[in-house]
Amino acid sequence: MNRRLLLSAGVAIAAAVAGGYTFMGRKAPAPAAGPAGGGDPVADLMQLQLPDLAGASHSLAGWKGQPIVVNFWATWCAPCVREMPELDALQKKYPDIRFVGIGVDSAANIQKFVEKVQVSYPLWVIGAGAIDTLRKLGNPAGGLPFTIVFNADGSINRKILGEIQPDDLDKTLSGLKA
């Protein structure tokens, strides 16, 4: 059976089991309404307040005017884990581009994970309730990993479902203007 299909099925089952709840039984944060209240998924993502591993809240809106690479991942996702060192190397190569890993997992699992595998870019937690967010952003299966490259003006440059190809992503990043 196709590995991507298996991964997507696993994510869908996890989402169904989680029922929209994140770590410690809290309801997943609801995305803010878009500028006109129309539910623009990119605007919603930019405004979404997400905790880092220390519990401090952040949003992508804080990086307005800068190119951003957002990587949705999970500790249990083998392709996600494989691509993290490659994303870390690209982040170091392009210091003017903001990178963030948004964990579709619990803060406790991510904390244990980073004790073994460290990255230099920030990791935020969205929890299992993220599947809806992923779908709205153009990932109908809600599969992981899922990477979105944003231009400095906040528009989407490209979406990558599945493991990144470092040389391919490098070409995209080299063309971004800060």
TrEMBL record:
Top-level taxonomic group: Bacteria
Pfam families given in the database record: Redoxin
GO molecular function: disulfide oxidoreductase activity
Thioredoxin domain: residues covered: 22-178
Locations listed in the record: Cell envelope
One cellular-component annotation, GO: cell envelope
Single Gene Ontology BP annotation: cytochrome complex assembly
UniProt cross-references to CDD domains, sorted A to Z: TlpA_like_family (cd02966)
Alphabetical list of InterPro entries matching this protein: Redoxin, Thioredoxin-like_sf, Thioredoxin_CS, Thioredoxin_domain, Thioredoxin_ResA/DsbE_sf
UniProt KW keywords: Cytochrome c-type biogenesis, Redox-active center
Name under which the protein is recorded: Thioredoxin
Organism: Achromobacter pulmonis
